[in-house]
Amino acid sequence: MWDHDDGWRNGTVSPSRRWNWLVVSVAVGGIILSGFLLWRAMVALPTVKGQFPAGESTTVTLETEGITVFADRENTRFDCIITDHRGQTIPSSRPTTSETITINQDSWHAILRSDTPVRPGTFTVACADNAGTAVWFAVGPHASLFGFLGNLFGAIFVFIAGIGGAIFLAIVLKIMRERNQTHWDSA
């Protein structure tokens, strides 16, 4: 009923050279995408911009949405006021989870976050320590460790998938070409 033979069933047609480009494209695409995700992971790392002792204030310019206030001690009793460049108070509250970042061997504990995403800009932060200890405060963008880890694991997965996919395609092409060669040798 169906007499057409396209050559694939009996191995008389070899895969075209375009398939080689597909293998290279999958590998290069995986490497480029994983590099992009790795760059996003580095950008997502929490950082601190301005450091200041209790009872003083600092002005910082943030390039990303949100603002976080850190203290160099956990369980600090404090009063902080965050204002934008117009002098408007930014609503903020304590984070629901504990978050500690270490930068240059200094540990910083997130103690306050803006409640809503605030636009990038210049902010003034003033904090007082209600316990009377010599606490230092720092200000940084609203960043989370989950953003860093998500991008990092995504980069690793995409790299492995890209290289693995390219290797898989290369093996399939090699098998298809060997079958074609075997067919021609036996004819």
From TrEMBL:
It comes from the Bacteria. The keyword Membrane applies. The chain crosses the membrane at residues 20-39, 145-173. Keywords: Membrane, Transmembrane, Transmembrane helix. This is Uncharacterized protein. It comes from Hoyosella rhizosphaerae. The lineage of its organism: Bacteria, Bacillati, Actinomycetota, Actinomycetes, Mycobacteriales.
